[in-house]
Here is the input.
Amino acid sequence: MHFIYQVKEVKKLAGQTLVYGLGTIVPRFLHYAVLTPFYTRIFTDTRDYGVVTELYSWMAVLLVVLTYGMETGYFRFVQNRGESEKVYSAALMSLFVTSVFFIALVNVFIRPVSAAMNYGDNHDYIRMFAVIVAVDAFTAIPFARLRKENRPLLFSIIKIANVIITIGLVVFLLKIAPVIYENSTGWFREFYNPDYKVGYIFAANLVSSLVTMVMLMPVILKARFPFDTSLWKRVFTYSLPLLLAGLSGSVNDTVDKILLRRMIGPEEGLAVLGRYGAACKIAVLMALFIQMYRFAAEPFFFERANQRDARQAYAFVMKYFIIVMLIIFLGINLYISVFQYIIGANYRDALAVVPIISMGYLLYGIYINHSVWYKINDLTRYAVYITITGTAITIVINCLFIPVFGYMASAWAHVVSYGTMIVFSFLFARKHYRVNYEMGKMIPYFIIAIAFTIFANCIKYKNLAFELAVNTLLILAFIGYAQYRDGFLTLIFSRNENRNNK
Here is the structure.
């Protein structure tokens, strides 16, 4: 009966993950399936896409700074039903104040900020960039509330609308508008600048972020005064270490894209960064699942923290999470001959990084799964120790080896860094919240997945159809092994059995 209960819990988490996937995977899939091919074909000069890659890397870092762990802090303190509304209001007001302050600060110091980011001639890029980050940071708490209230459908609708608006505006501004411009002699020529190109991407993103905030207004307006200062201090004290950890984690994920340009050279660096960034977009499909899973897992883990069998549930979830992630890993890398068409031909010489980057993301997913131990025990300072160590490793590897190996060094830095973070997380958890994950039993899965990937990359196939047929058999063999070892398919199709056992 205990196994049946665990199966029910995992299937519930999987169901929530799939629904939240509408708000994460679907928008991101639309982004990659539409915008990535679009950008890498319309920007034949890879330096243009290098600009997009670099600025969105900065955006990821600053988004962590401007949310400063408040999402997780909200989930931690909202468990007390008597204070749930006060927690929401305190977190939301806090992010509102800091977001407005950030916009003002960037605009006051626009010249030095633009110069520091090497965009001294593009102040408007940086102004739009600042508003996008600030709005996205502010709306993090309303989205968190939707997750807490188990309203994944509304969450997903708003997220999907955001991407659809972005796609529509980008396609119009970069593809349709130039044609109108060429055939126009009136007001449109004064309104539209065909040379602005990359700037229109940020303009489209700005509009979609503002529309998202408007759509969230019914949730935002649930905030109530007065502002509970003492409660805010408790939430902030809990969240601050998560800011440092999140910042380190974000830097860990993006610093390679920031360093490549600076270490290779302004122009050539942008071109290399464009190719590397485009190839990473294929591997990021792994990260999409992890993000989707995290949205569902955080509330799930906190809700079960006080249950007697919580540790067994965490171990159970970890095992099947790894199996699913390895199947996705194989799907990306064994079907790379299909996925390569996501990016333009000028960018495909960087595809060698895809297996490495995707393995790095898999390791990151394991760390995210394991990190529940310090979150539920208010030991978030350990997140700082772990992620700072990982970030230091990433920076050192990039600085030492980019001049020799280029972006391949950046790819391997992810694997080494996230692998080290997993080791440290397990070592710290042994003292404070030990869970028997039996990770040794998962090693054969990794060996098989890596062996299949190497095999697929070494073999020269007669044609694409034959390649896909062989690689599909390899994936099916892996799934068959997972069924033999851990009843993977039984878990998925156990619905009727559970009913009978009841």
The CA atoms of residues 320 and 486 lie 9 Å apart. The chain has 23 helices and no strands. Confidence is low (pLDDT under 50) at residues 496-502. Residues 2-501 form one domain.
